[in-house]
Amino acid sequence: MRVSVDTRQFKKDMNNIVEYSLGYLDGVKSGKSVFFKNLGLNMKEVLEKYIDSNARVNPKALHHMYEWSKTGSPDARLYDIDYTVSNLGLSFTTNFKQSLSIKDGSNVPFYDKAKIMEQGTSVVIRSNLLVFEEDGQTIFTKNSIVVDNPGGDATTGAFEKTIDSFFTKYFTQAFLRSSGVAQYLENPVLYKSNIASGKKIGRLKGVSVGYKWITNAGLING
To answer: I want to staple 180 with a disulfide (CB 3.0 to 4.6 A). Which of 48, 57, 167, 220 is the partner?
Structure first.
């Protein structure tokens, strides 16, 4: 019995599969920035909702991050969250916004309200005549008043702690799973389903499949 094997075709198929796999890795690498950009947008929205939710549950700690009497309201946020993509990956930054609303009993907005209360910075109040209550008595004075911690201990560092809890707990324990990102990355279906085409075409097919796979990962909605 004589068996004939076309070793040239076998060798060509194997070489193409290897090139397909290497191209796939190159495609994933080239698409990482798009993946991080899409993921960053998704995470930004989820993080903002996370902060709003925590503010409604614990207004004493986070009321300073919103306009007066609107704690937890998306349209009253006194903070901005942004993200950047670099060679190091994905990073987030926060900035405080000026308060424009006026608290009952005041005449002007509390400028730098979010920053001052978050950092526990003391403030000096000056006016021609100050009226306030202390120990149940109404006090009238023309002297300036120093308020050591306008927001109290509950607000100091509360915004930072909330963000930290998102990235150290919620992001790893809930977001990656609930959004579907973790499952998607753990199961590279596109690579498997395109091996037959990769065996014929080689590297170019691998690049396109790898790029498509990684960029689609960040588009999953949480």
So the answer is: 220
Q: Strand, helix or coil at 99?
A: coil
Q: How big, in percent rounded to 5, are the helix, strand and coil portions of the chain?
A: 55, 15, 30
Q: How many domains does the chain have?
A: 1
Q: Quick one: tokens of 148?
A: 């050591």
Does 21 map to a domain?
A: no
Largest CA distance in the chain: 113
The reply to whether 41 falls in a domain is yes
Whether residue 43 is contained in a domain is answered as yes
Sequence-distant (≥ 6) Cβ neighbours of residue 87 within 8 angstroms:
none
pLDDT digits (tens, 9 = 90+) for 158-213: 999 999 999 999 988 888 888 888 888 888 899 999 999 999 999 999 999 999 99
pLDDT tens readout for residues 3-46: 566 678 888 889 999 999 999 999 999 999 999 999 999 899 99
Residue 6 lies in a domain: no
Considering only CA atoms, give the Rg of the chain. 28
